[in-house]
What does this fold into?
Amino acid sequence: KYEKIWLTIGISALVLFLTIVGVSAFAGGHAPPSAHETLDPQKVNETAPFNNPGLFKVGEKKYELVMISEAFAFTPGNVKIPKGATVTFIVTSKDVVHGFAIPHTNVNMMITPGHVNKITHTFNEVGEYLILCNEYCGIGHQAMSARIEVV
Ligand code: CUA
It folds into this structure.
């Protein structure tokens, strides 16, 4: 009798284990390391935080910049931040894979649809920074950029 119970527990554990492995492999399948939570690319406009893109102050000189990328623009396309600001970019794509790079910084990531992609950078120098799409995404790829003004 006990054997049957243990067998049942054993099989249940195995099934549970395989399910976890299967689900995590599926969910994390093609996500780059910068990608965290997942979301439905069709519902970006209705899904927090992307239902309200923009710059948010979250602490002393700390900001979160929620951005949406789609062929062929970033929203918002123009952001002003104070010198010394540490900005966490929180970005997703509504359509295809885009790039997200700020020349002369370590900011460089892939924006994959269905994922919340994050990267943090501190802007210690005043000036104008361009966010460039460095992943070919179609006919308007060359023009896909946004501007950050550090004042
Ligand atoms: Cu977006 Cu290239």
Observations:
- The CA atoms of residues 133 and 146 lie 9 Å apart.
- Residues 72, 98-99, 133, 135-137, 141, 144 surround dinuclear copper ion (CB under 6 Å).
- The chain has two domains: 1-30, 36-150.
